[in-house]
Fold this sequence. Notes:
- It is a single chain.
- By secondary structure, the protein is an alpha/beta fold.
- It folds into two domains: 2-226 and 346-435, Aminopeptidase; 229-340, 2-Layer Sandwich (Alpha-Beta Plaits).
- It has helices spanning 2-13, 24-27, 37-49, 51-63, 72-85, 144-158, 184-190, 251-269, 287-290, 311-331, 351-365, 383-386, 420-435, and strands at 89-91, 98-103, 111-117, 168-174, 200-213, 217-219, 222-225, 229-236, 240-241, 276-285, 295-296, 299-308, 335-340, 347-349, 370-372, 391-399.
- It has an eight-stranded mixed beta sheet, with helices on both faces. It has a four-stranded antiparallel beta sheet with strand order 10-12-8-13.
- A hairpin with a 6-residue loop joins strand 1 (89-91) and strand 2 (98-103).
- Helix 3 (37-49) packs antiparallel against helix 13 (420-435), helix 6 (144-158) packs across helix 13 (420-435) and helix 11 (351-365) crosses helix 13 (420-435).
- The radius of gyration is 24 Å and the shape is elongated.
- The two termini are 30 Å apart.
- Bound molecules: zinc ion.
- Zinc ion (ZN) is lined by residues 142, 144, 177, 207.
Amino acid sequence: xxxxxxxxxxxxxxxxxxxxxxxxxxxxxxxxxxxxxxxxxxxxxxxxxxxxxxxxxxxxxxxxxxxxxxxxxxxxxxxxxxxxxxxxxxxxxxxxxxxxxxxxxxxxxxxxxxxxxxxxxxxxxxxxxxxxxxxxxxxxxxxxxxxxxxxxxxxxxxxxxxxxxxxxxxxxxxxxxxxxxxxxxxxxxxxxxxxxxxxxxxxxxxxxxxxxxxxxxxxxxxxxxxxxxxxxxxxxxxxxxxxxxxxxxxxxxxxxxxxxxxxxxxxxxxxxxxxxxxxxxxxxxxxxxxxxxxxxxxxxxxxxxxxxxxxxxxxxxxxxxxxxxxxxxxxxxxxxxxxxxxxxxxxxxxxxxxxxxxxxxxxxxxxxxxxxxxxxxxxxxxxxxxxxxxxxxxxxxxxxxxxxxxxxxxxxxxxxxxxxxxxxxxxxxxxxxxxxx
Length: 437
Ligand SMILES: [Zn+2]
């Protein structure tokens, strides 16, 4: 499995920058694909018929959210559902998440992956919600409850169609999407061999998006979601009583200067044609000094978050952050160390498969409901798949009313249930068309 990851890293580091990604409209020259009207009617009806199933599962996961790598009850619930449906699966070795398999005719001919994430967030509920959380401080604030419910419904409605489909459908209920330091998607590639199946022709997934209307699906080609990286920058100085300033080296002062100087990267070194997100989100000095306000702390750590829409540019910005920190440490006569997480690459939609998907979705939903996705600085660990195999990651509009338009990760965020059957029919139709004889 390691070879895939190495390929990913290689691919990630040589990914063309955002400027090379073609806008969908310009790149869209292929002849339209034919509408499978019988299947469109069938799947739209099936998605409506199963709406209660989808909604109940979404509501259940909103009420009983579980954090990354702790999705034990969620996994048990999904396993029980798969048992009822008669779909074989294996629970991942770490005990959360699973891979289910629907073998259609000639299973080794091709493999298609349906990927959804099952973890929720340590964000407390706030405001009036349709399905408030029962767990204090945890909620489905990124809508993964909806992704799971949609994915399971897709499996349920495609199962009876498997005689009309060729190949193998893998259903990946993926844990721990939310962690930059230990992302679930990287784990299933490296440790669970999700990409060892033969002839993988594509993967499909989606993410709810509250600033898009429910009923709409948005797509973009190329890199369209940011890489997600973070680095702890730790300053080491010298402690002592504050009155003896001459003999101390105050690391809070160095850290403050470093944070201010991050703006130099933006104003002097950034490429005006490339977006960058750069923020310090945590600062800690050593505890014993914090408890004694007249003591100078000899260690201060700053967590810097940085995101770009190009892997090359990310490398350049990482170098600049280190350079600024080293310069500041020198001028304060202190030492600095960096603890960098490997991070998550950009999410890249395969251009050809995306153009094909767009045509299919226009046939399913009508052109007025299939839109160009804008670039987002949010990351997603589906990125790991996207640099190894052909991925199409849809943005499913989940807004449409003020109570559904709070941003992802906001305490008040919730999904408009009206988007659920749209997500179901969209993914089911794409997978069916990819696998039909
Ligand atoms: Zn998410």
